[in-house]
Amino acid sequence: MKFIFKLFFSKQNILATIFLITLIVYFISSFNLEKTIGEDVVGPSSFPILVATFGFLLLAIYFLKGTKNVNESEGLNLYLIKNKLIKMAPILITIFFVILFELIGFLFSSFIYSFLFILYLNKTAKYSFFFSLVITLCIFIIFYYGLNFQMPMGELIDTDKLFPFLEDLKKLIY
After folding, report:
1. Which domain does 129 fall in, by range?
2. Both 3 and 60 in a single domain?
3. Domain shared by 161 and 96, yes or no
């Protein structure tokens, strides 16, 4: 039991354990998604289950590889945790994006995601803001207008009500 505790909560594996817990919650929540008409195998819950399963496999490999390196004298310190968080920032930013996607809609969540990700790549805030704005608008225009794809508009911030002209433009095109 002590070995298992050290394996999951050692200084090398603490953030992987947090990621494992997040994946478990994500996997369980995917079973609560509504079934669509005619859904046999592939449906709304397929993608979360696939992502969680792939994540479980990668974490299993990571933990099995780490069984060789479990050391008795390991301790956690603030510098090590901060360093691991910086290395895992892209994953944390992506989790943040997934959480915000339905809540605030595609436009705002994608802008925040790309802005934070570009900042993580050591670019200036001005560059990150401009590039995020361009990327988000281009993707939105391609999918919403070009492909007539219904983008999530948000529950907390309803983009349809905030920008009513978006739907009017779509009606003009189609």
Report:
1. 88-174
2. yes
3. yes
Q: Identify which of 165, 110, 119 has the alpha carbon closest to the alpha carbon of residue 139.
A: 110
Total domains present in the chain: 2
Question: Helices marked H in the chain — which ranges?
Answer: 2-9, 14-30, 46-66, 78-87, 89-120, 125-140, 159-162, 165-173
List, in order, residues 6 or more apart from 118 with CB less than 8 Å away.
127, 128, 131, 132
Residue 115, class by beta-carbon neighbours within 10 Å (0-12 exposed, 13-18 middle, 19+ buried)?
Answer: buried
- Reported as a single tens digit per residue, the pLDDT across 11-58 is 667 777 888 888 888 778 777 766 665 555 555 666 777 777 877 887
Which letter does DSSP use for residue 144 in this model? I
pTM for the whole thing?
Answer: 0.59
DSSP string for 99-125:
HHHHHHHHHHHHHHHHHHHHHHTT--H
Q: How many residues does the chain have?
A: 174
Q: Which amino acid is residue 94, in one-letter code?
A: T
Strand, coil or helix: 31? coil
Task: Tell me, yes or no, whether 46 and 97 share the same domain.
Answer: no
